[in-house]
Amino acid sequence: MWRFLPAFGFVLVLSAGPAGAACDVKGAQIEEAIAAKSTLKSEANAQLVRDLRTLRDAAIVLETYKFPGECEVLLGVAKSLIADPAKTIEQGGDTDEDKAESLSEAREPKESAAPKVK
Predict the structure, then answer these.
(1) 32-56 pLDDT, tens per residue?
(2) Which of 16, 35, 82, 115 gives the lowest tally of CB atoms within 10 Å of its CB?
(3) Is the pTM here over 0.70, yes or no?
(4) Burial status of residue 67 (CB atoms within 10 A of its CB: 0-12, 13-18, 19 or more)
């Protein structure tokens, strides 16, 4: 019986690994970083701040549904945007109004289709 104990311990350690790999949205301190960065307080960066909060919220959803890898990716993107807001503005030069309108429409909740009655 004692010879199975090390194998059981190994299996126990492996099963505990994913639980420790949870995404730490609170620890990323996105909101604190936004508050601390003076350049993000300017009106020119208002959209970036909204986007950062959207990314944070999306990371919370991914964490809730047990997608820690994807959650970490989103937090990494948010941290890189916070680190260099000027570069973010340079990268985000898309002014296509049709595209913006279609994205805005995609955000609107849609009515669910009524079930078909036979």
Answers:
(1) 999 999 888 888 889 889 999 999 9
(2) 115
(3) no
(4) middle
